Amino acid sequence: AYSLGIAHKSLRDLAKSEPWLQRSLELRAAGDRMGRSRSLAQLGYVAYERFLEGRTAGEPADVLSGHLQNGLEFAHQALDMTPLDAVGQLSSIHNQLGNLYDEAGQKVKGVALNHYREAIRYAESGGDLYGTAEGRRNIAIALLNAKNFTDARDYALAALRNYQTYGTGAKERIEDTLALIAAIDKATSSQS
């Protein structure tokens, strides 16, 4: 059921993905904390994707808010279920929570940034440079949106260095991060 949910999610068929992921959660033993965490985290990801698609389609604000709320609930449940030694899963969930809170407008309060920092901390402790880069890039975007250009640029450059260790395997992310740095530079120069 979990694999079918992931397969449909990969095909961008959220309507088929969600019930399979829900079924995978129902089939998990109560003591399978890691398995339950994975199912919950994926359900949170589906809710986040529904939000992104809904925003693009111009859905009403209350519907979009519902998607974000569902995503936050699933992600927090996943976080509570995740064993403390599952640093990769913890990093992924904190990154997801950062994205959800960022979309919900929690940047000013620092909630999104705190989750991104936790994602980086867990990724670093697990030796995951790509996860570290993802967290740093997300912080750079949040700081750019908050008009903190100096710190945004520092985080973007750090993310770029991490991505570059993957060479052509991270070509798209390297290009995206270079474009992010250019956007930060442009915003900085227009502010002067």
List the helices and strands and how they pair.
Elements: H1 2-10, H2 14-27, H3 33-57, H4 61-81, H5 87-103, H6 111-125, H7 129-145, H8 149-164, H9 171-191
Helix pairs in contact: 1-2, 2-3, 3-4, 3-5, 4-5, 5-6, 5-7, 6-7, 7-8, 7-9, 8-9
Notes on the protein architecture:
The longest helix has 25 residues, at 33-57. This protein is globular. It has helices spanning 2-10, 14-27, 33-57, 61-81, 87-103, 111-125, 129-145, 149-164, 171-191. The mean pLDDT is 93. The chain has 192 residues and is mainly α.
First-residue to last-residue Cα separation: 54 Å
The tally of strands reads: 0
How does the overall form come out from the CA principal axes? globular
Low-confidence stretches: none
Largest sheet: none
Radius of gyration: 17 Å
How confident is the prediction overall: mean pLDDT?
Answer: 93
Secondary-structure element series = HHHHHHHHH
Structural class by sheet pairing and helices: mainly alpha
Helix content: over 70%
